[in-house]
Specification:
- The protein starts with a helix and ends in a 10-residue tail after the last helix.
- The radius of gyration is 17 Å and the shape is globular.
- The chain has a two-stranded parallel sheet.
- It has helices at residues 5-21, 39-44, 59-78, 86-102, and strands spanning 28-31, 48-51.
- The chain is mainly α and 112 residues long.
- The longest helix is centred in the middle third of the chain and has 20 residues, at 59-78.
- Helix content is 54%, strand content 7%.
Length: 112
């Protein structure tokens, strides 16, 4: 990741706390090798890190990324101008992911 290490560690801690407040206990983080430097910190938080091997892909994540790109491109083709301000691009991406996350996954943690 291109983020500063301390910012990344702080963000991970905030996410773990957020999930804990909702009653979820984070025990594993699945990531690529870029997050390997977080392993010692995650051990102190009782979280295990499972990283992919070099040149390995996680099909579920790859598919989700393709779906996000498809939805954003679908919006952009209907937008009346060719240029979209950067702040709108950021919010478009956030909105797209949020709307996809509203749909419960068949094998997810929700009982509904």
């Amino acid at each position: 990741p291109s983020l500063d290490h301390s910012v990344l560690v702080n963000s991970i801690r905030q996410l773990i706390a957020l999930y804990a407040n909702r009653g979820f206990n984070i025990t594993w983080i699945l990531s690529d090798r870029a997050f390997e430097t977080l392993r010692p910190i995650l051990v102190t938080l009782d979280v295990r890190l499972n990283t992919t091997a070099a040149n390995e892909h996680v099909p579920e994540i790859e598919r989700f990324i393709r779906v996000i790109k498809e939805r954003v491109r679908g919006f952009l083709t209907t937008y009346p101008t060719d240029q979209l301000p950067n702040i709108m691009k950021i919010h478009l991406l956030q909105h797209t992911v949020q709307m996809l996350n509203l749909i419960t996954q068949p094998n997810g943690v929700s009982a509904h």
